[in-house]
C-alpha cells in the first residue's frame, strides 16, 4: 500500500516539472573538560543547547554565488563546482540578464517554487506558463549521490526525456517538508540509493523533497533567504499553480569574496 501511495504522490508532484554538493551535516556535540590542580578545581562553564531549526551552512570563500531578488526578499545561492555544466550554463544566462523580469510562474506549498520560463516576461494574467525554453539545448544530467534535494536546493527542471537532461533555463528551488525514516527507507528501496546519516538528519529536520533525488539535477543551494521561499509559497495561485500576483526575479552574479546578503 505504501509503495502505491508513494508512486501516486510522486506522479502528482512531478507533473508539469518542465523544464529538481551539499555536504550532509549531522549533529555535533561540544565536549567540556575540567582541569585540576593540587589546591583547586577550575569550574566548568555551563552551556545551553538551543533547539536546531535549520542547518547552519558555513560561508565558503572563492565559490560562485548569485543573488536572486524578489518582491518578497532576496536569496543568496551558492552554485556547486561538482555540477560544472549546470553551473556554467546558469552563470552565462545570469551574465546575459536572461532571468531579469521573468516570473516564478509555478509554486506549490510544501514542494517548490519554479521559474525561468522566458515566456513569463510580460505574460498576460492567467496565461499558462512552463513550456518556454524548449528550443534551447538541454544540459546533460549531473547526478551525484552526495547532492540531494534538501530545503533550499537549486535544481534544474526538465521534460520527460529518456536521459533526464535538464532544461537550459528553467529551475526550481525546493521548499519541501520534514520526512521520516519510513519515507526515506521506501525511497531508498524504490530508487536503489542509500542516504547517509547526515542526509537523513537534514531531511528529518530541515526537510526537502527526497523523492526527486537522482532524477533531477541539483546544482546549488540557498545560503541565505530560506524564508523567501516560504513567503512566496504562501501566495494565492490559480488552477495552474501560477501565483495570482506576479512574482518577478532579478539575478546577479556576486563577487567571489562577497556573500551579498544585503
Secondary structure topology:
Layout (H helix, E strand, L loop, with lengths): L1 H13 L50 E6 L2 E7 L4 H12 L8 E5 L3 E4 L37 E4 L14 E4 L6 H11 L5 H9 L12 E7 L1 H8 L16 E5 L8
Antiparallel strand pairs: 1-2, 1-8, 2-7, 3-4, 4-6, 5-6, 5-7
Account of the 3D structure:
This protein has 262 residues and is of the alpha+beta class. It is built from five helices and eight strands. It has one domain: Cyclophilin (Beta Barrel), CATH 2.40.100. 20% of the residues lie in helices and 16% in strands. It has an eight-stranded antiparallel sheet. β1 and β2 form a beta hairpin. The chain is globular, with a radius of gyration of 20 Å. The N terminus is likely disordered.
Anisotropy-based shape = globular
Query: Strand sequence of the main sheet, in spatial order?
Result: 3-4-6-5-7-2-1-8
Rg over CA atoms:
20 Å
- CATH architecture level-2 label: Beta Barrel
Question: Structurally, how many domains make up the residues?
Answer: 1
List how many beta strands DSSP finds. 8
What is the third-level CATH name, the topology?
Answer: Cyclophilin
Q: What oligomeric state is this?
A: single chain
Q: Note the run of SSEs as H and E.
A: HEEHEEEEHHEHE
What percentage of residues falls in helices of 4 or more residues? 10-25%
Q: Please summarize the sheet with the most strands.
A: 8 strands, antiparallel
- The level-1 CATH class: Mainly Beta
Question: Can you say what the CATH homologous superfamily is?
Answer: Cyclophilin-like
Distance between the termini: 48 Å
* Residues in β-strands, percent: 15-25%
Question: How many DSSP helices?
Answer: 5
Q: What average pLDDT do the residues reach?
A: 83
